[in-house]
Amino acid sequence: xxxxxxxxxxxxxxxxxxxxxxxxxxxxxxxxxVDKLMSSGAYGLVLQVRREVGKRLFGQPTKAGSKRGxxxxxxxxxxxxQLAKIEDAVEKEYVSKKNDxxxxxxxxGPAEWDAMMQELEDxxxxxxxxxxxxxxxxxxxxxxxxKDYVEAARGTKxxxxxxxxxxxxxxxxxxxxxxxxxxxxxxxxTYYLRNDIHTLKDFAKFLxxxxxxxxxxxxxxxxxxxxxxxxxxxxxxxV
Amino acid sequence: xxxxxxxxxxxxxxxxxxMSGVAAMDDCFFMEDNELFGNGGEYDIFNNEDVNAIxxxxxxxxxxxxxxxxxxxxxxxxxxxxxxxxxxxxxxxxLNKRSLVTYPLFLCxxxxxxxxDIGVNLFYNQTTRMNFTYDSSCLFCYLGLLQPNLxxxxxxxxxxxxxxxxxxxxxxxxxxxxxxxxxTCNERRVxxxxxxxxxxxxxxxxxxxxxxxxxxxxxxxxxxxxxxEREFGALDPxxxxxxxxxxxxSDRLGFGDFRFEVDFPVGxxxxxxYWRAGVLTTLPINIAIIDGLMGSVxxxxxxxxxxxxxxxxxxxxxxxxxxxxxKIAEDFFxxxxxxxxxxxxxTTLGRDRHLGVGALFRSKVPFSTLIKKSWAEQxxxxxxxxxxxxxxxxxxxxxxxCPDIQAFLDRHFEDYDDEELVDEITEARARxxxxxxxxKFVDKFFPYVYMTKVRPRIELTWSNKLSYEPPxxxxxxxxxxxxxxxxxxxxxxxxxxxxxxxxxxxCKATRGLAYQWRGLGEFIFRVKRQTKDLYLSLNIDGAFASxxxxxxxxVTFNIESNF
Lengths: 239, 563
Fold this sequence. Notes:
Chain A is mainly α. Chain A has helices at residues 2-21, 29-37, 40-58, 80-103, 110-145, 147-152, 157-170, 177-183, 189-196, 200-219, 222-238, and strands at 60-61, 67-68, 71-73, 76-78. Mean pLDDT of chain A is 81; it is low at 1-20.
């Protein structure tokens, strides 16, 4: 009997983990109400923000079928995910080199060790500054692309937060940046982004959570989806 | 056996690790659409090239026109449709009022020695709680806001909204509405009553003509006001004053109706007695000279306002135009309040335009015929009975339609809540349903106004006074009782279409019977001169029992010259 319970627990854990990555359907009555009332234009805006966020995270699709980054770092374009990985690698490399230097301090003379340490610090600071520059650019870019969406949600903050909470709960995200962003006072969202997110990794995570939330929202509105698809078909016919 | 169990456990663990692995913060943490949803299937909206092409080339706007189907579906969702099935108005008739010319304090019934009498009465009359129905002076007996059915449906809609908005939304329907349940209307009338009397060969001619300021306002006790301010917050005093003047107070200054009476002795007259009969007429020449000294004048809303849920929802969903939506809603409800104020507060200075013609009977009987005492010889019973027929007059009257639940049932609004049936609803049907709901919504707040022939019929007064006015003394006293009754109205010739006429609720539009009993006292001071007598009197009366009309009181100061 105990084993059965254990199996059941494991299986349910497995499925709950599965929902955290796949499609999540919101069930709050608010979403059903919004589904009935939301125009296809507003639904399109949700999808558009989601798509733009996706482009920042994973890159802009090119005609060749590959993806191109949006943000510049050392003269080349990178996606936010790539930048987050670079940031992670730079950090790891710095820590590893620093530990190495500290470990082998006795192999060097004091002046030579200090110089090497200083060089490492300078190199790291330079890299960090470049990454911060990219982070700043990414934040400002996001503020710009989400302007209309944030404006559209003005006055309905509490209701949007209810949906963010449901989405986060279902995805097992209890302390994510998206929730904190949502909990910020209306109008303070940009201040929060500019001042409370310090790394590219955190910012990429924030955008990824936001994109997931928009995905959940879009998936949970079947009527809007249907209306939007008919709009798509209509515009195809016109073309 | 043990090996099999270990294998099962291993299998489950591998499954878990595989499925939960995506949540770990590593390379595979950030997953793209094709990784998440694959290609095609139910969620293909994110991997659809046509969709992406539109998303990349179109500028979407939130404030797009919401379609009628969407609006009706939303109204069904928040139970507004059920709410619209209920009536807000339990009555639409104007409030009963008593004309100043019928008040007992304005009877010229002193023991005049000379043939001419001219007088002026300064008066103050106040009704603290006007009656809205036969039995009640509470506004909520006129508006059905505390009717169990309506409360149930409001609660249903609020529960639905609460469910949609989350638990933070809190609204206690009965508690909130109960704050206003004792709300009523006040009336004040201040002015002068000009009166004159001429006796010519035993025939008396008598006229009365008031000039006064009439003010009506909604009224709540200070404790009730405090409680409401605690619940909703208070406006600043300037704003409050402005709002009251614009929407909650109505006043006029001008002339009331003109009353003319002629009476003559009937039967054999004994010393100390008189029996007189006569005729009277009340000419409805009331006219306001100044409107809105402290408040406003509210016009009858003959052209019903239009209200579009479609426009409101479209504006409300776009933050840029949301203030416009709020303004539309605010204007609509203020207009509804003004329409209500027209019914309750804005009234003419007389009996509208009803000409009155009637008969009167006056008597004077020495009290000594009942009590054989010396003091009783100075005391007289003075009776005054008037019977007046008020002629019909065409005027605007508010009507609502009888509730028609079947009209709602026939439209099958439940289809909008059904995921499958909703697709079958055509735009034409949705538009028709929406127009129906918009019309019903306007009906809730704005009664129909039609020119109607109103027959007030009969008004009767019966004043009884004990009069003590010894010729040898300079003072006198009147004490008495007064009874006034007015019959219920009849309505006819409503200028509505035949179809509409069938649906109108005539009972609710008809002013019912009203009566009141008053007690009165007059203290008279007489100054004798060579050629004339001067009368000064301080008079007071008040209603102590009434139905269909409020209990008012009046204080007058009377100056008369008898010559």
